[in-house]
Amino acid sequence: LTPTDAAKIVYDIRLDSQRPSGFVLIASCPVSRVAMQSLNEALQARGIAAFIVWSASIIEAMLYNQYNDLLFAYFGVELKARQRSAERVLRESLRMEKRLSKDLIDHTFTKDPRNWRRIDLEPWSRFISSRAIIRSVHDKSYPDADTEGTGLSSWFRHNFYDFYHNGLEFWLANEYLVLHDGTKWEHVDSSDPRIQESRFSQEQGEVHRTHSLLSNCGLQAER
Prior knowledge:
Blueprint: H1 3-11, E1 22-26, H2 33-45, E2 50-54, H3 56-65, H4 68-75, H5 86-104, H6 107-111, H7 116-121, E3 131-136, E4 155-164, E5 167-180, E6 184-188, E7 201-211, E8 217-221
Parallel strand pairs: 1-2
Antiparallel strand pairs: 3-4, 3-8, 4-5, 5-6, 5-7
Helix pairs in contact: 1-2
């Protein structure tokens, strides 16, 4: 869905004297951040403030988690009848890893032998983008800031780090370590004066693992 297509959908709507209070777009394809912004701007121009977008990945997640009856009625998939044996779980994980690799990896970059050393040292360099946007299927605020409620935001950005056997790894934050007696590391605050002694300190990235079979959120690489 291109930004132009997103705006055209809005401007093709016939509005009578009573304007709608909201707008729902259901798309059988991915919807990029740029397309979301274009959609938002077009809706604002027509006086429609609230909108929800259900992209292909969000619809799939909702069918598997909330609307199992529709999943069975329209696609013949009955979750209760599926026995998730170790073999099936492994097969599904490999299928999802293959799908993620196809969508997220810059294969032209990885096939060039000149880049292999860098990929070995910097595994994140092989992704098509440095950052990913992770969204709850119930999110209504993206791409605006999530200011409602407390706790974990309904959408946020993370930096790609690497794949692992069961999904993706994201780089969350940096931490400082100080070496004691050449054998033990101590986590310290960034203001600790000891980190200036480069011989005894090291900056370490905090990596978080996300299971590849994301059940309640959608993921897209940020362009």
